[in-house]
Design brief:
Layout (H helix, E strand, L loop, with lengths): L49 H27 L3 H11 L20 H15 L4 H40 L4
Helix pairs in contact: 1-2, 3-4
Length: 173
């Protein structure tokens, strides 16, 4: 290998100054400067990793054999793991459906007890499950919390204004 006349890691006299050619700036060791990149646009969207593409291609070739093997183990060898895998793929996850119960409107803090009573009544009549009642009660409780937070902020502001006026009246700022 021929000697280029300069030591590794030090810039060559003939090396172009970074930025003059439109390239990202690099230091004397060839590394990008902080905040710079050799690919400012980044990786294009939708481009997948080569390993992912290879794995998908391999899986596509063997998918039918894999399915047959799992089904064979589940049906004929009583393999509980294979059976669970099959059932999980056949049955979609259970999604909670909106109950037919209509929560009374929450417009003021006084509406919360009415809403909670309606939820309790719906549970006792079997219109909603206790789990659904818990979720609906959480909605009411969050409304109450928000209402109380707003009221507390208003009261605090009024106290601070009052304190400020008293200080000004007595000459203490």
């Amino acid at each position: 290998m021929a000697d280029s006349g300069h030591t590794r890691g030090t810039p060559d006299k003939n090396q172009q100054i970074p930025g003059e050619t439109g390239e990202a700036a690099r230091d004397g060791r060839g590394r990008f400067q902080p905040g710079q990149s050799g690919n400012p646009a980044g990786r294009p969207k939708g481009i997948r990793n080569r390993a992912t593409l290879l794995a998908q291609a391999m899986f596509a070739e063997e998918a039918e054999n894999l399915v047959r093997t799992v089904l064979d183990r589940a049906l004929y060898r009583n393999d509980p793991v294979a059976l669970r895998l099959c059932i999980e793929r056949i049955m979609s996850p259970r999604r909670t459906e909106a109950p037919e119960f209509v929560l009374p409107p929450l417009r003021a803090i006084g509406d919360a007890p009415v809403a909670l009573a309606a939820i309790g009544q719906a549970v006792s009549e079997g219109a909603i499950t206790p789990g659904e009642a818990g979720q609906l009660s959480d909605v009411v409780n969050r409304f109450v919390y928000a209402w109380e937070s707003i009221e507390l902020a208003a009261r605090l502001e009024a106290l601070e204004d009052s304190d400020s006026r008293l200080r000004q009246q007595h000459g203490r700022a």
